[in-house]
Write a structure and sequence with these properties.
142 residues, alpha+beta, 3-stranded antiparallel β-sheet, elongated
Length: 142
Protein backbone atom coordinates (compact mmCIF):
# COMPACT_ATOMS: atom_id res chain seq x y z
CA UNK A 1 0.00 0.00 0.00
CA UNK A 2 1.28 3.47 -0.87
CA UNK A 3 -0.22 6.66 0.58
CA UNK A 4 0.54 10.17 -0.63
CA UNK A 5 -0.37 13.31 1.32
CA UNK A 6 0.36 16.89 0.31
CA UNK A 7 1.39 19.98 2.19
CA UNK A 8 2.11 23.23 0.40
CA UNK A 9 3.70 26.61 0.99
CA UNK A 10 3.55 29.96 -0.77
CA UNK A 11 6.21 32.62 -0.15
CA UNK A 12 6.50 36.22 -1.31
CA UNK A 13 9.42 38.58 -0.77
CA UNK A 14 12.83 38.34 0.84
CA UNK A 15 13.77 36.25 3.82
CA UNK A 16 13.27 38.82 6.58
CA UNK A 17 10.67 41.08 4.99
CA UNK A 18 8.76 38.37 3.16
CA UNK A 19 5.81 36.31 4.27
CA UNK A 20 4.14 33.07 3.37
CA UNK A 21 1.32 30.67 4.03
CA UNK A 22 1.20 26.92 4.58
CA UNK A 23 -1.70 24.63 3.77
CA UNK A 24 -2.55 20.95 3.86
CA UNK A 25 -4.43 18.89 1.31
CA UNK A 26 -7.10 18.02 3.90
CA UNK A 27 -7.76 21.66 4.70
CA UNK A 28 -6.80 21.21 8.36
CA UNK A 29 -4.35 24.03 7.70
CA UNK A 30 -5.51 26.52 5.11
CA UNK A 31 -3.38 29.53 4.38
CA UNK A 32 -1.77 29.69 7.83
CA UNK A 33 0.81 32.48 7.91
CA UNK A 34 4.49 31.92 8.54
CA UNK A 35 7.56 34.07 8.24
CA UNK A 36 11.04 34.86 9.52
CA UNK A 37 9.86 36.46 12.77
CA UNK A 38 7.61 33.46 13.52
CA UNK A 39 10.50 31.08 12.98
CA UNK A 40 13.43 32.94 14.53
CA UNK A 41 12.08 35.73 16.74
CA UNK A 42 9.26 34.13 18.73
CA UNK A 43 6.42 36.01 17.03
CA UNK A 44 3.12 34.09 17.21
CA UNK A 45 2.36 32.01 14.14
CA UNK A 46 3.50 28.71 12.78
CA UNK A 47 6.89 27.56 11.53
CA UNK A 48 8.31 24.40 9.98
CA UNK A 49 9.80 23.13 13.23
CA UNK A 50 6.55 23.24 15.19
CA UNK A 51 4.76 21.55 12.30
CA UNK A 52 7.38 18.79 12.33
CA UNK A 53 6.93 18.53 16.11
CA UNK A 54 3.17 18.19 15.81
CA UNK A 55 3.52 15.59 13.07
CA UNK A 56 6.07 13.61 15.09
CA UNK A 57 3.98 13.72 18.29
CA UNK A 58 0.89 12.54 16.39
CA UNK A 59 2.68 9.78 14.51
CA UNK A 60 4.51 8.48 17.58
CA UNK A 61 1.34 8.44 19.68
CA UNK A 62 -0.62 6.58 17.00
CA UNK A 63 2.22 4.05 16.61
CA UNK A 64 2.28 3.52 20.37
CA UNK A 65 -1.48 3.01 20.40
CA UNK A 66 -1.03 0.24 17.83
CA UNK A 67 1.81 -1.38 19.79
CA UNK A 68 -0.19 -1.19 23.02
CA UNK A 69 -3.09 -2.90 21.26
CA UNK A 70 -0.80 -5.71 20.10
CA UNK A 71 0.17 -6.17 23.76
CA UNK A 72 -3.49 -6.33 24.81
CA UNK A 73 -3.46 -2.82 26.30
CA UNK A 74 -5.54 0.27 25.56
CA UNK A 75 -4.60 3.78 26.63
CA UNK A 76 -7.20 5.89 28.37
CA UNK A 77 -5.13 8.93 27.42
CA UNK A 78 -1.70 9.73 26.03
CA UNK A 79 -0.33 13.26 25.86
CA UNK A 80 2.80 13.65 23.73
CA UNK A 81 4.88 16.75 23.11
CA UNK A 82 7.74 16.86 20.62
CA UNK A 83 10.35 19.58 21.15
CA UNK A 84 12.24 20.14 17.90
CA UNK A 85 15.69 21.71 18.27
CA UNK A 86 17.20 23.68 15.41
CA UNK A 87 20.74 25.01 15.71
CA UNK A 88 23.09 27.11 13.63
CA UNK A 89 25.76 24.77 12.34
CA UNK A 90 28.43 26.36 10.17
CA UNK A 91 26.79 28.64 7.63
CA UNK A 92 23.30 27.17 7.97
CA UNK A 93 20.75 25.68 10.30
CA UNK A 94 20.02 22.03 11.08
CA UNK A 95 17.38 20.22 13.05
CA UNK A 96 19.65 18.51 15.53
CA UNK A 97 17.21 16.81 17.90
CA UNK A 98 13.64 15.94 18.70
CA UNK A 99 12.70 15.25 22.31
CA UNK A 100 9.47 13.33 22.80
CA UNK A 101 7.76 13.79 26.15
CA UNK A 102 4.93 11.36 26.88
CA UNK A 103 2.46 11.10 29.73
CA UNK A 104 0.05 8.21 29.54
CA UNK A 105 -2.68 6.49 31.48
CA UNK A 106 -2.75 2.83 30.40
CA UNK A 107 -4.66 0.45 32.65
CA UNK A 108 -2.78 -2.81 33.17
CA UNK A 109 0.63 -1.45 32.10
CA UNK A 110 3.55 -1.03 34.46
CA UNK A 111 6.21 1.65 33.98
CA UNK A 112 8.82 -0.72 32.53
CA UNK A 113 6.41 -2.17 29.96
CA UNK A 114 5.14 1.29 28.99
CA UNK A 115 8.72 2.52 28.47
CA UNK A 116 9.65 -0.56 26.42
CA UNK A 117 6.62 -0.20 24.15
CA UNK A 118 7.15 3.57 23.82
CA UNK A 119 10.77 2.98 22.76
CA UNK A 120 9.53 0.56 20.12
CA UNK A 121 7.03 3.16 18.86
CA UNK A 122 9.72 5.86 18.81
CA UNK A 123 11.95 3.69 16.62
CA UNK A 124 9.15 2.52 14.34
CA UNK A 125 6.97 5.53 13.70
CA UNK A 126 7.26 6.76 10.09
CA UNK A 127 8.04 10.35 11.12
CA UNK A 128 10.92 9.09 13.31
CA UNK A 129 12.32 7.49 10.15
CA UNK A 130 11.70 10.59 8.02
CA UNK A 131 15.19 12.03 7.97
CA UNK A 132 16.46 8.74 6.61
CA UNK A 133 14.09 8.98 3.64
CA UNK A 134 15.17 9.72 0.10
CA UNK A 135 14.30 13.29 -0.81
CA UNK A 136 13.67 13.97 -4.47
CA UNK A 137 13.25 17.32 -6.17
CA UNK A 138 11.52 18.61 -9.26
CA UNK A 139 12.00 22.28 -10.23
CA UNK A 140 10.25 24.44 -12.83
CA UNK A 141 10.99 28.14 -13.31
CA UNK A 142 7.91 30.00 -14.52
Amino acid sequence: MKINRTGSAIWQGGLKDGHGTVSTESGALAGQPYGFAMRFEGVKGTNPEELIGAAHAACFTMALSNILGQAGLTAERMDTKARVTMEKIGDGFEITAVHLSLEGRVPGADAATFLELAEKAKAGCPVSKLMKAAITLEVKLI
